[in-house]
């Protein structure tokens, strides 16, 4: 027994398995979901297929699909959290306490924010980048395919840890950025904050590695003739985003590292005693956190730029100003972090600076909106499903941007700081900007990856329901914020008379639920009807950029012959007969071989995270040793690539073209 | 470094990628430095830097690390001249000096620990141990990496791939040197002055 105790440490306890029936629902759903996947793979004998074709693949497109699948699973969980919060605040009035106690409610909103930012938005972003960036640049792959796989598995390790917190233990009850001193050991002694810490620490390191990968891809892997100013705007948006990621995520890593030292070793970086300074953490985390929101939204801006130009059947208006606007936003996003805590007491001059800088960001953003509108002007617009998302975006995001400028005024911010008005504002920009953008992108590029379109009318129905549900859910939240409702409370005094607004908001959430259900039906129905929806041409939308010049689904090697471009929108011009982008002889090229290295590192990272959360120090050492061993083994392996000869490339190309 | 080798290295995606990685690590350290700068006066009435730092000792430590950086530079020169044996000797010297540096740092920590000046006593001590300890962890990582590189070089001939790896290692090692110079200045010199 003594031995067992020393192996399991002093933190683990049976008590962490049982919290109550509501939590049991989460446990059952998580375990049931995991078991269903395992059983399904076993029953259909797909383990070998999954391992060979997906898990060990270094093909960026497959890694992109895996990111997207994980992100969608997390979207459903994060949405489940949202539903619980809306129900709770709707029900808890007067004598009714609702169905969540304060502690559990706090865990739910912490999980909701953490999941939606780190595992949904980031996952969809890296998914889309992997799916289309190399194709757009006329490259066969990303710069470092193995590193790409490792990034994905670090993200997956974070995903596993976040969901494990649902089964064994608890999650942080501290809000998505875990402000100290609340998040310190003194006030949050359980493993919840550690689950939060290690799941995003590990996933965040994956994001930093991805940033390195994509910056090198953009600067070193573009096809011949594609100068920087000929890159599609989506590629530019990713370039700006990845610079932000590269320069922001290490600050997150450092801040989380210090907080974990406080919690694991009893240090006093951010505690409220012995000189610790909690505001230091809050400054650092927002110095990451504000760039982070632009990390999420800039790729969406890139997607809209591609979608609008394609469906207006015109070249994008103001390409150069688009590029400069992206870079300006990227720069300014580092100069506004203090607007998240105007109430800190930094003084009028500091607040004025950060307020004015925040308002300035609206200018390049406005430039982009006008550029999209001018692109549509006199275009021959086709309203396919991606355009519906764009229209939903422009209307919604404008309102979110306007309320953001309101919040940028320190005097107003003092009134609505930490109120539901803020909550409504950032949902307005993140749902209206980011979520709609990624849905537009997924609808737009789906046929390129899978070879068939998503069902159009169901997509349009989903967009309509989303926008209706969004406004029904969040306009009441805006009003509640103005009335003085503070965020993150599970219960309000009934004498305020706020319950009708919470009921209205919950109805809106139900409409969003319908929208999400429609999207799932859309996916299932499209798979069922994939023969009818098949994309035979490889260019279903009459696109402008290089990804539409290859057959759908895009082959593993992307291009049998690397393209040569002479202009922006090279594929569009090639279709007009103005230039040929595929000429010259086929050449030999190399593709990366499959490897389980990423999987092994992901497993080791998960073990490390779990061990750090539960203070199993010996297991931490085991996990680190595992990583070292895997990396050294990989270093000794010289046989990592497979050659495709010119003759094979020609043959593959001919087969593809014959099939189309 | 021969002309062609320089060209190969300069154009490699990996070199560029590795520089980007170093920049991210630099930012992690920047975060720790910034926090140290804010917390260095938050001594909670316990000890200040001037009370606990021994400059001659730290200067010796610094010289050892600089010497190890010189050794890895010589190893890269030897690698580019395809001289495997001298390269291995210089790498061994790098590792030895690095290990001495790490040992000295641990000894310094042990003395502080025994005197009761530990990280739980004040925010200043937390940020000191956090910053210097993180550098030490990087040195430890470097030593493990170096052992793997030497193990590989003992068994195999020098391929271009192997040479590139030694170059990356040397970049990493020099980078840690630069960080240490900043620690020496900001933590120790400014702590004592």
Written description of the protein model:
Chain A has 660 residues and is mostly helical. Chain A has a domain at 1-312: Cytochrome c oxidase-like, subunit I domain (Cytochrome C Oxidase, Chain A, Up-down Bundle), CATH 1.20.210. Helix content of chain A is 68%, strand content 1%. Chain A has 20 helices and 2 strands. Chain A has helices at residues 2-8, 21-43, 47-55, 60-91, 102-137, 145-167, 192-220, 233-265, 278-312, 319-332, 348-376, 385-408, 410-416, 420-450, 456-483, 499-528, 570-575, 597-613, 617-636, 646-659, and strands spanning 589-592, 641-644. A two-stranded antiparallel sheet of chain A has the order 1-2. In chain A, helix 4 runs antiparallel to helix 16 (499-528) and helix 5 (102-137) runs parallel beside helix 7. Chain A is globular and about 70 Å long. The mean pLDDT of chain A is 94. Chain B is an all-alpha fold. Chain B has a domain at 63-193: Cytochrome c oxidase, subunit III, four-helix bundle (Four Helix Bundle (Hemerythrin (Met), subunit A)). Chain B is built from 7 helices and no strands. In chain B, helix 4 (55-80) packs antiparallel against helix 5 (84-114), helix 4 (55-80) runs antiparallel to helix 7 and helix 6 packs antiparallel against helix 7 (160-192). The termini of chain B are far apart. At the A-B interface, helix 7, helix 8 and helix 19 of A face helix 2 and helix 6 of B.
Can you lay out the helices and strands and say which pair or pack?
The complex is a heterodimer of chains A (about 650) and B (about 190).
Chain A: H1 2-8, H2 21-43, H3 47-55, H4 60-91, H5 102-137, H6 145-167, H7 192-220, H8 233-265, H9 278-312, H10 319-332, H11 348-376, H12 385-408, H13 410-416, H14 420-450, H15 456-483, H16 499-528, H17 570-575, E1 589-592, H18 597-613, H19 617-636, E2 641-644, H20 646-659
Antiparallel strand pairs in A: 1-2
Helix pairs in contact in A: 2-6, 4-5, 4-6, 4-16, 5-6, 5-7, 5-9, 5-14, 6-7, 6-18, 7-8, 7-18, 8-9, 8-10, 9-11, 9-14, 10-11, 11-12, 12-14, 12-15, 14-15, 15-16, 18-19
Chain B: H1 3-11, H2 13-39, H3 49-52, H4 55-80, H5 84-114, H6 123-155, H7 160-192
Helix pairs in contact in B: 2-6, 2-7, 4-5, 4-7, 5-6, 6-7
């Amino acid at each position: 027994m003594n031995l067992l105790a020393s192996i399991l440490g002093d933190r683990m306890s049976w008590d962490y398995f049982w919290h109550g029936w509501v939590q049991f629902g989460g446990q059952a759903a998580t375990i049931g979901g995991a078991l269903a996947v395992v059983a399904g793979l076993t029953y259909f004998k797909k383990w070998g297929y999954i391992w060979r074709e997906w898990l060990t693949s270094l093909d960026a497109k497959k890694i992109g699909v895996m990111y997207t699948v994980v992100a969608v699973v997390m979207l459903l969980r994060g949405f489940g959290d949202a539903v619980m919060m809306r129900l709770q605040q709707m029900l808890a009035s007067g004598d009714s306490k609702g169905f969540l106690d304060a502690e559990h409610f706090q865990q739910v909103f912490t999980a909701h924010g953490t999941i939606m930012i780190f595992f949904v938005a980031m996952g969809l972003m890296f998914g889309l980048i992997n799916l289309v960036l190399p194709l757009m640049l006329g490259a066969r792959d990303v710069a470092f395919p193995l590193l790409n796989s490792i990034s994905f598995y670090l993200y997956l390790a974070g995903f596993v840890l976040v969901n494990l917190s649902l089964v064994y233990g608890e999650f942080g009850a501290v809000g998505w950025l875990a402000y100290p001193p609340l998040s310190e050991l003194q006030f949050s002694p359980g493993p919840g904050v550690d689950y939060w810490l290690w799941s995003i620490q590990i996933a965040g390191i994956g994001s930093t590695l991805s940033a390195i990968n994509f910056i090198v891809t953009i600067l070193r892997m573009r096809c011949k003739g594609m100068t920087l100013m000929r890159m599609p705007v989506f590629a530019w948006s990713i370039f700006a985003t990845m610079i932000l990621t590269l320069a922001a995520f290490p600050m997150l890593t450092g801040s989380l590292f210090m907080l974990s030292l406080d919690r694991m070793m009893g240090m006093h970086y951010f505690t409220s005693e012995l000189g610790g300074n909690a505001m230091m953490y809050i400054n650092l985390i927002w110095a990451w956190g504000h760039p982070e929101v632009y990390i999420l939204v800039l790729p969406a801006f890139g997607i809209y730029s591609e979608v609008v130009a394609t469906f207006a059947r015109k070249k994008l208006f103001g390409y150069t100003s688009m590029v400069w606007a992206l870079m300006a936003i990227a720069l300014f996003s580092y100069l506004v972090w203090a607007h998240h805590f105007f109430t800190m007491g930094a003084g009028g001059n500091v607040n004025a600076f950060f307020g004015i800088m925040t308002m300035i960001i609206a200018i390049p953003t406005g430039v982009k909106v006008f550029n999209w509108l001018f692109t549509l002007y006199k275009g021959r617009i086709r309203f396919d499903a991606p355009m519906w998302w764009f229209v939903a975006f422009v209307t919604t995001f404008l309102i979110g941007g306007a309320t953001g400028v309101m919040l940028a005024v320190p005097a107003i911010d003092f009134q609505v700081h930490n109120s539901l008005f803020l909550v409504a504002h950032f949902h307005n920009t993140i749902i209206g900007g980011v979520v709609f953008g990624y849905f537009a992108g997924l609808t737009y590029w789906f046929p390129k990856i899978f070879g068939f379109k998503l069902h159009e009318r169901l997509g349009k129905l989903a967009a309509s329901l989303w926008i209706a549900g969004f406004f029904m859910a969040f306009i009441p939240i805006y009003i509640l914020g103005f009335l003085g409702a503070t965020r993150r409370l599970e219960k309000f005094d009934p004498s305020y008379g706020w319950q009708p607004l919470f009921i209205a908001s919950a109805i809106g959430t139900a409409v969003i639920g319908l929208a999400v259900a429609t999207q799932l039906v859309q996916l299932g129905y499209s798979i069922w009807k994939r023969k009818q929806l098949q994309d035979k041409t490889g260019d279903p939308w009459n696109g402008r950029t290089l990804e539409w010049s290859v057959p759908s689904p895009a082959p593993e090697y992307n291009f049998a012959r690397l393209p040569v471009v002479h202009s922006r929108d090279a594929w569009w011009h090639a279709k007009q007969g103005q230039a040929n982008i595929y000429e010259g002889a086929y050449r030999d090229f190399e593709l990366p071989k499959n490897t389980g290295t990423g999987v092994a590192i992901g497993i080791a990272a998960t073990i490390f995270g779990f061990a750090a959360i539960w203070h199993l120090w010996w297991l931490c050492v085991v996990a680190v040793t595992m990583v070292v061993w895997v990396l050294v083994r990989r270093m000794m392996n010289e046989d990592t690539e497979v050659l495709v000869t010119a003759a094979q490339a020609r043959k593959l190309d001919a087969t593809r073209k014959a099939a189309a | 470094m021969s002309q062609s080798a320089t060209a190969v290295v300069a154009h490699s995606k990996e070199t560029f990628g590795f520089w980007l990685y170093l920049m991210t690590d630099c930012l992690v350290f920047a975060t720790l430095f910034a926090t140290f700068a804010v917390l260095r006066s938050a001594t909670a009435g316990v000890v200040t830097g001037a009370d606990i730092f021994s400059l001659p000792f730290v200067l010796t430590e610094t010289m050892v690390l600089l010497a190890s950086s010189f050794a890895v530079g010589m190893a890269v020169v030897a690698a580019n001249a395809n001289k495997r044996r001298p390269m291995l000797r210089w790498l061994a010297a790098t590792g030895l000096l690095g290990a001495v540096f790490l040992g000295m740092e641990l000894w310094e920590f042990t003395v502080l620990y025994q005197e009761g000046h530990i990280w739980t006593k004040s925010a200043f001590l937390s940020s000191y141990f956090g910053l210097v300890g993180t550098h030490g962890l990087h040195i430890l990582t470097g030593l493990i990496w170096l052992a793997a590189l030497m193990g590989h070089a003992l068994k195999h001939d020098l391929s271009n791939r192997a040479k590139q790896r030694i170059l990356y290692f040397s970049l990493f090692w020099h980078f840690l040197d630069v960080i240490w110079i900043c620690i020496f200045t900001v933590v120790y010199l400014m702590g004592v002055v």
